[in-house]
Amino acid sequence: MKTLLSCARLFVLLGTALLAVQVPFYVGQYGETLAAHYAESQRSLGQFQDEADRFFDGSIAELVSHYRDSDDEVFQAGGESIQAIYHRNLVLERSLTRYRTGPVSAYTQALVRPVPEIKRAVLSDYSYVIRLDPGAIVFGLGVGVALTLVLELLARGGMLLVRSARRRRRAVSRGRA
């Protein structure tokens, strides 16, 4: 039984470490993809920004309003398209700024509050490879050890509760006899 428990602990440790080693690379790839999408968004918005600079003192909102106020349906639809491009650009810019503020922000951005479009792009192209990067190894082993310890503490706590309940039942049954 002890050998089986030792094997289970080792399996949890190694499995968790192997999975957790992927996290730093996923976060890095998320950042690269976010930066690439933002650059593409900037290029898409550039032409409209030039128009806004020339005719509306740089205000994209006024350019969009001008398009929407037109009697021409094509221009109105164009205003909606410009607004969508502008909104996407703002979302990507804010996300990239948050991502670049530090490691905790990068991990939070990539794992907890990712931009859905970026998350899909990263997951569709992600390759699961074990890379022997010191930071990834430390992260993986740290998460593996932490999870193993938590599971060990929960198992021991559960065993203590079961033993305590058995003792109480025995004491109650002895008191009745």
From TrEMBL:
The chain crosses the membrane at residues 136-162. Keywords: Membrane, Transmembrane, Transmembrane helix. This is DUF2937 domain-containing protein.
